[in-house]
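== Fold encoding ==
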Amino acid sequence: MRVTGPGFSELLRSNGTFRRLWGSNMVLYIGDWFTVIAMFILAGEASNESPLAIAGVLAVRSFAFAPLEPLTGMVADRFSRKKLMVVANTFSFLVLSCFILMGLLDSLLSVYVLAVLLVIGRALHDPSQSGYLPRVCDKEELLTANALISSGWSLAMGFGALFGGILITLYGVEIGLMIDSLTFLVAAIMISTLPEGGPDRDESREDGVFGMIRDIFAGWGFILKRPEISRVVVSKAAWATSGGSQIFLLIIIGMEADFGYVSAGAAAAGIGVLYMARGFGSGAGPLLARPLMTVPRYMPYIIGLSLGGAGLLYVGVSQFEWGMWTLICVFCSHGCSGVSWVFSTTLLQQRTDNDWMGRVAGTDNLLIVLTMGTSTIAGGYILEEELLTLREILLVTGLIQIGVGALWLTLVSPREKIFFASQKLGQTQ
């Protein structure tokens, strides 16, 4: 038996609400990478290219995300998810505009503060979107929808990182930040045209603060009681034990590498080329692997195989000289990571009731960003103190991911096989 669903073009053509949501994401995500690369460059300039200071940009974003995710996930289960997305993007537009107009980008501290404030907007937007999606797409459409969103994010990263890096190299960070500020405004306007999408009941006036706190803990309890959900959440966090360091280390490689047509001294452009490879790979992987993700006999093993494959390819990154093979390995590794991400996200949405969707998404993001932040700081510290070389750290992160993939295949795949079989039996009865 094969699980079917609409194709990519079919979904975009037939589901107008999803098409507009996806379009707003593309606008938003492209702009994001102009700012991210700008912050890497500003942090490097303010710290004499300190690896730990540059890692701090990613770490600050992660650690600011962490305490917000349970709260914003709960809020997404109480208030209009559409309105929350509009508020989140409007807030980010105002923050970034104020920093540009007031010239508040002249120190490492100001870069970190900007990172934190933009994270607040993203922390509100992401669980709201994750909870909104299953209300506008049915279960047969979810895998395709998630693959399109992931691929859109990846394409936006590729183009945004490349063009953002080149533009910042040529015209400076302020231009990149101005462009991103406008994308937040455009995304907010586009989202405002969408229909309401849950939650089923407006709980905004119920229970007060203590009720909200109870909801957060109730969400954690719900996940712990559902092993088919908790093991997927843990697998995404396990990827991040190395993924955070890898994303940071790409910045360091980009600052010192010459990819042929990019000057080695043009740090922003070098980072842009590597993040382009990461982005395009993250998008291509789910698109190419989608047919396999719908075949029941393969489904219990996809997460483990993709995690292990991602790690193996980063072992390759650690061995090759910086050049075309580096780009190929980064492309393929993040293609594997993209498969794991799309498939695991789809499983969470399919296995979670709507009233719990925001809290599950918030907890999922919480664990990921905590793990990524810790991994990023660890990588930056090890490199700063010269405990390991850049290539040695890359090798270690790859081996960890191979180990995580092996654990999934040996410990979790048998349980997933049983669960998928039970779901199939329930559908036939």
Notes: Confidence is low (pLDDT under 50) at residues 261-265.
